[in-house]
Amino acid sequence: MNRLSITYRTLLLLWGIPGLFSSVKAASGLEAVWNSIADSQPAEAKAELRQVELIDARERALAGVVVALTRLPLTGDRLRELDLVLADLTLEVDDLSARALYLRARLHQVHSTPANYARAGELYRELAQRHPASHWAQLGLVKLGLISLYALPEPADPAARLAAAAALLGAITEPALRRDLQMQIGWAGLFYNRPLDEVLPHLIAAERTGGLFALIPEDLVLQIGELSLRAGQYKQARTYFDRFLREYPVSLRRYNVQQRMLELVRREKEGGS
Amino acid sequence: MKLPRIQPWIAGLAALALWVALAAWVHLQIAGPPRARAVTIRLAHWQNEVGPADGLNDVIKRYEELNPHVRVKQMVIPPSIYRQWLRTNFVGENSADIVEYGAWLQGMSDIPVRYFAPITAQLQEPNPYNRGTSLEGVPWLKTFSDELLEQRLNSPEPGQYYAVTQARGSFRLFSNRQLLREVTGSDRVPTTLIELRAVAERLSAYGQARQRPIALFAGSKDTATLLMGMYLMGTTSRLVPELDRDGLLSLSAPHVLGGYLQGKWDFQRPAMLAGLTLVGEFSAQMKPGFQQLSRDEAMREFLHGDALFIFAQSGAARTLHDQASFDVDALRAPQPTRDDPVVGPYILGPFADGNDMTSFGFYLNKRSPLKAEAIDFMRFLASQEGNALFSAQSGWPPSIRGVPMSPEVAAFVSPADGYMLGISYFSAGGNSRDLLPRNLYRLTGPQGSPAKLAAALDEQMPEAARADLAALTRDAWLATLPQDARIAALGGLVHARPDQPAHGLARERLEAAQNQSEARALMFARQLQSAGTNGRER
User: Fold this and answer.
1) What distances in angstroms separate CA A180 from CA A1, A16, A216, one per listed residue?
2) pLDDT digits (tens, 9 = 90+) for A21-40
3) Structural domain includes residue B28
4) Chain A nearest-CA residue for B521
């Protein structure tokens, strides 16, 4: 009996080794789900979520909503279903609640057809009020700023739209997010043909924060130089044009900037500032 | 006969030994001893003209000498089916390890994020294949002559790099040297529009004298579109500062389309009418019916000596040189001058006839089982040695700094000596792009004139501009929507692994990219709401 039991135990151990690995996998399962979604692999994420065991029900519900958001577009019924799940998750006061509230606002703003900007705006405000220190609230304020600039029915006047968005900057403490909104306020100012003296400070502040990607850093330096030239702020124009020529040696617009530098010299000689 | 009784623990040990032996055998069968057998990586692209495939063959041959355990298979897929081929193979998980892709391929904008692996980290490190060269120790990204500008412009995730490039491109007027000499009596090439018109006059007289008409330009829909698009933009360049609301010193599609709908420009503007007059001059210098012809037919016209010039991208050079029975020169595009009788008053100065942006980009398949080998080959491909081999055999200008160029190849690199004006009036979208070819007969027909063409364009442009602006809005939303799930997932990772700053950085970048796309989508939608019809009835 004893010998049999040793054999039995040995076989069990051999059988059980792969099982040990699979429980390790289960423990780190949600991370695998997040990795697959971040990696744009929705099918894998869905399958991985099914395999995850031993996680909190709220975590699972939130992950289910995020997995659903990888399979767009969503039908009206599905959206309502997800909205209810998220609403349930926002009842607590924790990070998960903030994430759920942010996603609720996103459902109304970008995933519903037509978009319900007013409702999204309310949810972003609620998020900022309930979780002011949360990253999701900060990001929500940027989104609120964007819809204030272009989409919310009120205020309708462009200057008031810009003012409404600028008023949110004080509550955004994360530099990268503050930079994003500030840059968009500057660009919206150009879109609405606001005076350059009103636009330039926003663009300069965004550019100073740095950390921008792709072509935006090059665009911003050039843009501040050119808009400064147009605004008669020649010293500032020279500073930014010089920087452009120094920092972007392979830009396709070098010739254009060199020609604008000649124009700047001409205007300076005429006695500008 | 009674068999001896086997102790259970001996049976257990024997079973364990057998299990371990079987496992080891299976493992060796699957994986093989490291580097013991050759692996094959596949490289797919659509460049089926003379040159590129030969250039890549030379690169592959040398790479296989240096890395005997790796074989590289080149797959040249016809351009006409490339998009379908690519998508089908990715969906079927049978795609090549390294593939060519271009952001301009229609209906394929989801491909990079879904199927390509970013190579940003590798590009920050020196390329080991540049050891012993002037680029030793230089981060790989900095070894490209344009530091991968196209990736900065079009990357699906701003800040991430997905491709390495092989070549640079420009527009050139390819010339039949002997014929030009016969016609003009000298080797002097036209550098201005006025000089080009003089050549056209002499060519007409030359053809009449021999009763054999020769066209100034080989004609086809493709070559004419390139030629007219570039000149129409270049010869109306004084309009650009007027439309450049944002101070970017060049135009983008929303500026062109939105500006039109707001009445900031139309085709009745004197600059536009002058540009269209020039387009008419060019059309008259191509054989009748050129719009029905393809680029290959234009090439044949030029190679038969029935046209003095062909306007084409520099990639066509090798085919022209190989197949022509005469010497072919690549000329810079003749520039308008201030004293030009047609377009002189409307130009800022010379315009760019090419740029230093590198192209022919190769991407890494995210699901390749041989990623390490594929990256290693990409490193060689875009090293000084690899790129030199490619350039020498293909005749395409190299993308890597310090690669020597023959004078013929160097002639395709345009110095920065002209205005880069951005997107042309007919390239801002699919609907507006069709307008000029569809209406060109109103200019070139028997009763045609620039004014008639302009009137027709202005009648059709409001609808086309609105449709193109709506498409831009849709594209911006498409870039925005899928990022919500990814941002939430990265948030989950940040929450679960606060010790890994890479997740936080990835989230910050993605949020910045989404904020940017979202703001664009909202701005375009607002522009569509508020845009008029340029004073015309809808």
Assistant:
1) 73, 52, 11
2) 443 443 357 999 999 998 87
3) no
4) A150
